[in-house]
Amino acid sequence: RLVEEAEAALVEARSAHSPVRHHLVGPEARDIRRVADELRTAIAEDQLLLAYQPKIHVRRQEISSAEALVRWHHPERGLVLPGDFIGAAEDGEVIDLLTLWTIRRAIDDQRTLLAAGHDLRIFINISGQLLADQAFVDATCRLVAEADAKLGFEVTETSVIRDPESAIANLQRFADIGIIVAIDDYGAGLSSLAYLKQLPARELKIDKLFVTQLTSSNRDPLIVRSTIDLAHALEMEVVAEGVETHAALALLTVMGCDMVQGFLISRPVALPALMAFLEEDQHH
Ligand code: C2E
Ligand code: CA
Ligand code: CA
Ligand code: CA
């Protein structure tokens, strides 16, 4: 059902725009096609699942939101992590379908959470190329507005650099319908303060590259502290991802980091485990 709806929404939205065709060439093209075809089947046959990783608001001591991370329960290969298929999904042009599936599933799960008394914003990772895909943006805006969902989109700065004008305009459309835009992996890609200034983003996520060794490195604390100050000056809230130790959490708290996410608090978990985590949190 989700797939049919997603396909229909895309076909409808596409008819309003001229389609962009990518020609797959070179030795890897066949692999990309195979994975892309397998992914279509995976979406149709419900082999994908979402794992949720909570973000904790440090000062408020509460779970502020959760990030949805896709996993693939492959019939032969077992559990496959996104690092092994998102790239092929992007190159094989199924990332739009996969992401619409993700958004729909997140909206469904959000309803389940709300019915159990948990009002949680869910963040979804959005690949850069989708910010230039007008059909995807149209379909997504319609979907989110109709469902009245409380979502956030995580995008990297690098995704804006490709086509800044349409990316910024589309992020603004998302922001206008109440989607919170977060800059993901900050510091790990090609940073441009010029774009950072223009993006309608309310959250900045410091890449785990600077967080996992925060207390054993000389430079990382300096980078993290100045990033927090920069983000605050731009009126953004800061999330540190990859928080694995109490020592890192303590240091981030002193530095004024607003939110934390990482294995110390919770690994990404399936919906029932997220619910259990939320229930437990209520009793503390
Ligand atoms: P990301 O958005 O930077 O997500 C954070 C990754 O770090 C996740 O890996 C998460 O499991 C892992 N992580 C979380 N806490 C810790 C920690 O304390 N320490 C360490 N070392 N790692 C931690 P995962 O789930 O394998 O996802 C990898 C990447 O795949 C994500 O990176 C994201 O860029 C991409 N991805 C995941 N789901 C989607 C999706 O639905 N759409 C798109 N386009 N990309 C996705
Ligand atoms: Ca496609
Ligand atoms: Ca992310
Ligand atoms: Ca990240």
Helix content: 40-55%
Which ligands are bound?
Answer: ligand C2E, calcium ion
- Poorly predicted runs of 5 or more residues: 18-27
Quaternary structure type: single chain
- What's the story with the biggest beta sheet? 8 strands, mixed, barrel
Give the H and E element order: HHEEEHHEHEHHEHEHEHEH
Shape: globular
**CA-CA gap between termini:** 39 Å
With strands numbered from the N-terminus, the spatial order across the biggest sheet is 1-2-4-5-6-7-8-9
Rg value: 19 Å
With helices defined by DSSP (H or I, 4 residues minimum), what is the helix count?
A: 11
How many strand elements? 9
Q: Give the class from helix and strand content and strand pairing.
A: alpha/beta
Mean pLDDT: 91
Q: Proportion of β residues? A: 15-25%
Structure description:
The structure is a single chain. This protein is α/β, with parallel strands linked by helices and 284 residues long. It has 11 helices and 9 strands. It has helices spanning 2-14, 29-44, 86-91, 95-115, 134-147, 158-161, 164-176, 193-198, 220-233, 246-254, 271-282, and strands at 48-57, 62-74, 78-80, 121-125, 151-156, 180-186, 203-206, 237-240, 259-260. Strands 1-2-4-5-6-7-8-9 form an 8-stranded mixed beta barrel, surrounded by 4 helices. Strand 7, helix 9 (220-233) and strand 8 form a beta-alpha-beta unit.
Short description:
The protein has 284 residues and is an alpha/beta fold. It has eleven helices and nine strands. Ligand C2E binds at residues 53, 69-70, 81-83, 86, 99, 102, 125, 127, 154, 184-185, 208, 212, 241-244, 262-263, 268.
Helices, strands, pairings?
Elements: H1 2-14, H2 29-44, E1 48-57, E2 62-74, E3 78-80, H3 86-91, H4 95-115, E4 121-125, H5 134-147, E5 151-156, H6 158-161, H7 164-176, E6 180-186, H8 193-198, E7 203-206, H9 220-233, E8 237-240, H10 246-254, E9 259-260, H11 271-282
Parallel strand pairs: 2-4, 4-5, 5-6, 6-7, 7-8, 8-9
Antiparallel strand pairs: 1-2, 1-9, 2-3
Residues 184-185, 205, 207, 241 line the site of one calcium ion.
